[in-house]
Design a protein that fits this description.
About 45% of the residues lie in helices and about 20% in strands. The protein has 7 helices and 7 strands. The chain is elongated. The chain has a domain of about 40 residues.
Length: about 230
């Protein structure tokens, strides 16, 4: 069955990596609920040591109420954790949270400059960490807390960013031209120079300028590609 996040994908967009928070995050998120659960169990057993019947019943009812509250709280925590979707696609990084009321946030790969990964000793042992995504201006876009497989998530994200930038650098091939119809003896024709429309050249120059401004290519590479494109008009 398709998840909610699958409906957010654009045409031609594919999922490269999919994960969620580490299961240990449910312990931290539900630590208050776990404390209430333990307290209710302890209170229930202590009520057996009360000699008077009425106070004993009161303690048992309080323990039962706390137990039901903690269980309902823990179910909410685990359902919310299961509904999470943290994905790397061939175009962006996407995070979807929420059970009934969904919240999605994404960052385009071409706007991501780097990602800061923080892992504690326990995080390295269990394979989770905090990942902060940065733009070209070193501004934080989003923070993925206690992300499962955080190191692989970062590697996959940067690999897909590199692949996308290589795709932008590829110059589109000139369109094929139909061979002219010969009505007389053909003379030796000069080889046709591959051409591009002005729209194609303008689009390619814009992509190259964006890569140059973000530091993905040098100014010399930009000028060389620019001369090559202008020569194809």
């Amino acid at each position: 069955m398709a998840r909610y996040a699958d409906n957010l994908l654009a045409d031609g967009e594919r999922i490269v990596l999919r994960t969620r928070q580490h299961w240990l995050a449910t312990i931290f998120e539900g630590r208050t609920a776990w404390a209430i659960f333990i307290a209710s169990v302890v209170l229930f057993f202590l009520s057996g040591s009360v000699a008077s019947e009425i106070p004993q019943r009161v303690f048992q009812w309080i323990a039962l109420g706390l137990l039901l509250i903690s269980l309902f709280w823990l179910v909410q925590v685990y359902v919310s954790w299961y509904a999470e979707d943290y994905m790397v696609t061939n175009r962006r990084v996407l995070k979807v949270e929420g059970v009934f009321r969904k919240r999605s946030a994404d960052s385009s790969l071409e706007k991501i400059n780097d990602a800061v990964l923080e892992q504690s000793v326990l995080g390295r042992m269990l394979g989770y960490g905090d990942l902060e995504i940065l733009t070209a201006a070193e501004t934080s876009v989003d923070r993925y807390r206690m992300l499962a497989g955080a190191a692989q998530f970062k590697k996959t994200m940067l690999d897909e960013k590199h692949s996308l930038e290589e795709e932008f650098l590829r110059v589109p091939a000139p369109p094929l031209r139909a061979a002219p119809v010969m009505t007389a003896a053909p003379a030796e024709a000069a080889p046709a120079k591959p051409g591009m429309t002005s729209t194609e050249v303008t689009k390619a120059l814009g992509e190259l300028a964006d890569l140059r401004d973000r530091g993905a290519i040098s100014a010399e590479d930009y000028e060389a590609k620019k001369s090559e494109l202008l020569g194809r008009i």
